[in-house]
Amino acid sequence: MKVATKKVKSLDKSKPKKSLIKKKKLSEEPQLPKAAKKTVKKGKKDEIKPKKKVAKKSLKKDLEGLKDIDPEFYDFLKKNDKELLDFNLMGSDDDDEEEEEAEEKAAAEDLDSEDDDGKYHKPSDDLAVASDESEGEDDDADEEESAGGAQKITLNMLRQWELQLTKPNVSVEAVRQVIQAFNSALASISADAEMGEQANASAYKVVGAAAFNGVIQLCVLHLQPAIIRVLGVRPNSSLPLHKHKKWVKVRGCLRYYLGDLIRLVEQVSSTNILNVLLKHLHQMAGMVAPFTTLGKTILKRLIVLWATGDETVRVLAFLCILKITRKQQATMLNHVLKAMYLAYVRNSKFVSPNTLPGINFMRRSLVEMFALDLNASYQHAFLYIRQLAIHLRNAVILKKKDSFQAVYNWQYINSLRLWSDLLGASANKPQLQPLVYPLVTITTGVIRLIPTAQYFPLRFHCLQSLISLAKETQTFIPVLPLIVEVLRSNTFNRKHTAVSMKPQQFTCILRLNKAQLAENGFRDEVVEQVCGLLLEYLSHESATLAFSDLVVPVVMALKAYLKECRNANYTRKMKQLLDKIQESARFIEQQRSKTSVQLDLKNAQAVQAWEQQVRNKRTPLDIYYASWVKTHETKKRRQAAQTDDINADYDIPKLKRPAAKTGVPVRNEDGELELFPSDSEDDDAGIPYQDDDDDDDDGDISEPEEPQPKKPKRKQPKEQSKETIPAEPADYYDEAAAAVDIVKDLDLSDW
Questions:
Q1: Is 377 in contact with 433 (CB distance < 8 Å)?
Q2: DSSP assignment of 372-436, as one string?
Q3: What is the helix, strand, coil percentage profile of the chain, to 5?
Q4: Rounded to an integer, what distance in angstroms lies between the CA atom of residue 555 and that of residue 350?
Q5: Distance, CA of 444 to CA of 478 (rounded, Å)
Q6: Residue 171 CB: number of other CB atoms within 10 A?
Q7: Where is this region: Disordered (predicted)?
């Protein structure tokens, strides 16, 4: 209203306020005839007032008469909208009376001024228009002031900032300005309310994809080197960054920048952009150490990417986790180990050719994390191995379906693999070696729990873990009886009744169904697994002093199998293996006979030295195993390449399993932690195992007996036949799949 008042003063300096009041009142009044206006100017107000009063009285009577006409509707208004009735009955009279009093005063003052001056002043139309325009301009100015005067970021500003950041003497103010611009860029594309408030309070405003990409590029490429120059870090300095003198100047703005950076990583789903941001975060990892709370938030998101991202994203996320954890190992290591183990267990529920490489990577990288501090790792390993033992004990004692399911699943088997790999990797250090015996006992108990042909794949997975542990720790583990036992199975020795269209592989299978047991592919894979495991274990033991005595039971079992087997392919493989075992046994006897006089069995060092000499000479079995591995790997690659062609030629149907409504509960004792805790409510129901069987009677794992041949009368009741093993619930922890890509305009080719 500033412009309006100035114009009024120029027209009439003596009475500007009165004219403005009259202008407002006249504009607010309803349009009256000219005769009525003249009567108001002359003071004859009695001709208009009675009409208003009559209208008010009639309205009031109508509302009061509503009680008698429609009492229910009046009660409804009184209960639900009482203010409406009060406004109609009371507020209108008061407002009209106030307006009438104001009009009377204004008219009286105008009459007095007309008598004194002899003229009636009427503001012109131009004054009203000018006042309206000025009000609009003032409103726009107020909006700009409320926005805080945010400065729009241009390409010239980005070039100036880039020049400032690349100077040898970088100012702290330039770093702060760039971080504020990054915050404004993130707030411009974020729907979060807090980010929106920060955008309004920010000193900069990012508009357009070009400005956004320029700000992100500037921070990713030049911010970390600029901060290093601000702090004055020397090239070979081992002093932590937060120990430098100028750290206090950049601490506050750097904290906000790291929070914005991890928030941007959470919202990006594009793999290429995520790789660039993770590389930048890896550069900034040394600056996360002073921020404990922020560091936990960053590590939590990185662990999600490590467990669920693509191949390159997983590797970069792990490198960031490793670097951040090593910078603050004392405070972060226990938190990281627990979170990574739980993420590993959650994401190892299903094993397939697509998920197997990711699970193997998580297991190897997790072993590296546990190897950082073996004293701290012992507490975690002891706790989780003890939980595995509790589940196995419940299965052995209760012998119920739920307890069996808590053991025979991929999560349990992958946990056994993890701890065996960890104990094998730390074999040269004594901290974790006391856990070898309980882990071997648990793994052997899992194999003995249901020793049927259906679970031969699970048996082979457990045996592979035991053999790897024995080779790494140089510990004797009685694995041979568990391998040879497969050859005496009734199911394996029966003739096959079906021909499989493609060879079976037990790599991603724990359990076989009745149809798979009847195929010839099952027998082929079992013979292949038995030969492979015997070769791997015996080739390692072939250089030991007691090898010729160790293989006596194996030789007897193989000879007995060759007498009963009628398959030429199987007998050829077993006969070749038997010949190599006997040849290696004769080789060890010859070496022992040469040094029997000089060798003292009580001297462990002398025995180890003798075994090392024999290992350097290489036994016949060791040489044969090396050639077998090359042939076997070539065969596996050829089978993997032919899988797609076989599926296309035969049009193999896919099984559709209905999703279950409920999960299987896991039994826990009082005071015991859950084996596989999860943040999901569905996961709390239990850990069901993988069911590859659609048959009704063959899928019950509560019956450990082997299926007997040719019993047509054996039928299960309808209720039991309908009992199926629940399917796995959806993985709640997959947050990366639900992320939204908010940096679609960011093009790596422009960088």
A1: no
A2: T-HHHHHHHHHHHHHHHHHHHHHHHHH--HHHHHTTSSHHHHHHHHHHHHHHHHTTTSSSSGGGH
A3: 70, 0, 30
A4: 38
A5: 10
A6: 13
A7: 1-61, 88-150, 660-733
The b-or-e profile of 263-291 (16+ CB within 10 A means b, else e) is bbbbbbbbeebbbbbbebbbbbbbbbbbb
**Cα separation values, 235 from 225, 229, 232, 372, Å:** 12, 10, 10, 26
> What are the C-alpha distances in Å from 596 to residues 256, 399, 545?
74, 51, 11
Q: Which of 678, 644, 669, 658 is nearest to 725 (CA)?
A: 658
**Kindly report the CA angle at 403 between 388 and 677, in degrees rounded to 5?**
50
CA distance 320 to 266: 15
Q: Which of 735, 668, 739 is nearest to 346 (CA)?
A: 735
Whole-prediction pTM: 0.68
DSSP state of 675: S
Query: How many C-beta atoms lie closer than 10 Å to residue 553's C-beta?
Result: 12
- Residues 547/613, Cβ–Cβ less than 8 Å: no
Q: How far is CA 279 from the centre of its chain?
A: 19
- What integer pLDDT is reported at residue 24 of this predicted model? 39
Question: What confidence tens digit (pLDDT) does each residue in 684-729 have?
Answer: 333 333 344 434 334 333 333 444 444 444 444 444 333 333 333 3
Mean pLDDT of all residues in 510-523: 91
H-helix or E-strand containing 366?
Answer: helix 356-370
688: which 2 tokens?
A: 């069901």
566-576 tens-digit pLDDT: 889 999 999 99
For residue 741, name the pLDDT band (cuts at 50, 70, 90).
Answer: very low
Nearest to 622 by CA among 696, 522, 547: 547
Helix (H) / strand (E) containing 573: helix 568-595
d(CA 468, CA 367): 15
Q: What are phi and psi of 151, to 5 degrees?
A: -90, 130
CA distances from 463 to 39, 167, 254 (A): 112, 62, 51
Pull the structure tokens for residue 320.
């960031």
DSSP, collapsed to helix, strand or coil, labels residue 205 as: strand
Residues in the chain: 751
Rg (CA), the chain: 42
Q: Are 459 and 482 in contact (CB under 8 A)?
A: yes
- Return the domain boundaries, the chain: 2-146, 151-344, 542-652
585 compared with 142, residue with greater pLDDT: 585
* DSSP assignments along 151-176, one per residue: EEP-HHHHHHHHHHHTSSS--HHHHH
Report the C-alpha gap between 163 and 157 in whole angstroms.
Answer: 10
Beta bridge partners of 152: 205
Question: Which of 694, 693, 696, 698 minimizes the C-alpha distance to 720?
Answer: 696
